[in-house]
Amino acid sequence: MTMPSANSCVENNVAIKIGNLNKWYSDHHVLKDISLDIIENQIMVICGPSGSGKSTLIRSLNQLEEYQEGDVSLFGEPLLQDNKSKKLIHQTMGMVFQSFNLFPHLTVLENCSLGLTHLRKMSEVDANQKVMTLLDRVGIAELSTRYPSQLSGGQQQRVAIARSLAMEPKIMLFDEPTSALDPEMVKEVLDVMIGLASTGMTMVCVTHEMQFARQVADRVVFMADGEIVEVGPPEQVLVNPQWDRTYDFLQHVL
Amino acid sequence: MDDSNLSNKPALKQFKPTPARAPLNTNKGIIATIKHRCFNNIANSLLTICVAVVLYYFIRHVLDWAVFNAVFTADNRRQCLAISPDGACWAGVLSWFNGLIYGRFPIDEQWRVNVGVLLALVWLLPLFSKRIAMRNFILLTLIALYPFIAGYLFLGGQFGAQLGLFHGAMTCLALAFLAMIYANWLLSALGHKGLNELFVPLFSRLFKHRIQLLSCLAVWLPLALVFAVAISFISLEPVDIDRWGGVFLTLIIAGFAISMAIPVGIVLALGRRSQMPVVHWISLSVIELVRSVPLITVLFMAVTLLPIFLPADMEFNKLTQVLVAVCIFAGAYMAENIRGGLQAIPQGQFEAAATLGLGYMHTMMLVILPQALKMMIPNIMTSFISLLKDTTLVSIIGLFDIMLMARNIANDKDWIGLHTEPLVMISVLFFILCYSMSQYSLNLEKRLKVDH
Questions:
Q1: DSSP string spanning B212-228?
Q2: Dihedral sign, CA of B115, B116, B121, B122?
Q3: How confident is residue A2, by pLDDT bands cut at 50, 70 and 90?
Q4: What is this structure's pTM?
Q5: CA–CA separation, B11 vs B227, rounded Å?
Q6: Which residues lie closer than 8 Å to A165 by C-beta, 6 or more apart?
Q7: Which of B134, B275, B355 to mutate against chain A (most A CBs within 10 Å)?
Q8: Residue A58: is it exposed, middle or buried by C-beta count within 10 angstroms (0-12/13-18/19+)?
Q9: ipTM of this complex prediction, to 2 decimal places
Q10: Nearest-by-Cβ selection for B349 from A62, A94, A101
């Protein structure tokens, strides 16, 4: 796939530019020279066998993991691994985890409004109003007074999505959002993500849901053994893979 | 697509769940339950009978000694023994009961102790009402402001003279705060807005930020002035600290240690987990040093060694030294409890907080500590209970706490040699205190339990 030139279209701004990212866990080389552009308003799906470094990559983008080498920039702003960059990153990116990571001692509403009232200094009324709109959007407004333990996995993940959206991120990162869910609940979470995709949100999703990738992804990245094997539109990577590694993987998951 | 497959599905049998049945009735009445539990076979029946016999003899002897053969009114021990040689002599304990509770606090001034304890309870009461906002803040003020009221009540003297103007000002602020909470509570119960809400429209025109805080101050400070004028004429009889004692002193030491243990423990626990080497090593050494020394040693060091290190003109009374020592001791133990709770919090919670953009303080205060402390309630309460009992050790360095008062009874010439009954009495007092603490912690656990 050819990269669009910088001045071709407003929508095609590069949101995150990753250049030669390298990461080691002691002497285990987990990310090898990753270079990737994440385009604004596009959905990128990262797939690959377990241990291929997909989650590590997405967590490195969010600086939940440290990396040893690499130039990452966010909307043209070069990111160092310091507190200033972390602050910028966490203001710009939201993240949804495989294990939801809701705060169990707070209600659904409080989970979502925590950042608004304490970081954005929004009044409680305004924050609650905003959160209720979001909860309505993910379809669980009526559960706002429940605690996370009283919700199903799918509902918890939708709360987690709403919690991230409340902070108005420009980019959403999804780290295997449906892997911990019962099969019956996968769809409700994917539906929310599809809805979000249709609003033009920039999304990076690590997922095994090939159906979802085919349906909404603008580009699919296939990773194996810490390297990017193939990048391209879904119909190319998922239907006509160029590499045997991709072909083998697709044989197993499809 | 899946949808098209579903729309032309073949004719299937319709699944209807079987209606649920009521559970079997297991409630068979008391006699049937006893028969089922205690006499269901020969071995169990024998065991039940044996236990019943042992219990009967034990309880009968205890009751004989403590109630049936006991003497409740006598002038001295000799009389007690003459009336009933093998019963308890409660008369001695009763004649010293006031001393057990108040120590050697002058009898005419003991109402001040009662008022002080009552004020603490009054301060705690709003914490149980859901109607009151910012209950954590009220708890903080209890720790920060209440000691000034208590200090004035218990020490006495001309207001603002003996204890200094700062102490006087803080006392007025404390009283005003209490009055404000109660006024607002009463108003909200009657369906009105709080006093400070009256100032909100005015201040929102004058200022941009912190309107709530300013309107609170607008009520609080004038109220404090009113209190200052009202109580500046009051002069209480000065009472020397040496005269404090009994349950009263035990409660002061334990109350102080308990309220300081959590903040000190949190700071030390977070310090120990800190990435900064200096903070880490200081916290680590404080915790390990204090934990590996018995409380008695810490108390002795506080009383004998501390004055050597301090400049000659600085002199603290024994109680202050003891309070500081107990506070550090309790804090070090609490730190390890809290650290245990912190370690049980999954990494995902930290990551979720970080990705929301919460900083260190916010993450700890809003996300991590509430969970960690809640998880550790049983351990924390165990520490508090053992702390309460450990305060009896201060009798060794000569503070007249309940233990020393109890032993004093045996030295009284009228009640010479009366050891057992005072000890039984303070066991009962301690049991009441400790058991109510443990019941409160169970209640707290139940109230805070929201996960699963």
A1: HHHHHHHHHHHHHHHHH
A2: positive
A3: very low
A4: 0.83
A5: 84
A6: A94, A134, A137, A172, A196
A7: B355
A8: buried
A9: 0.91
A10: A101
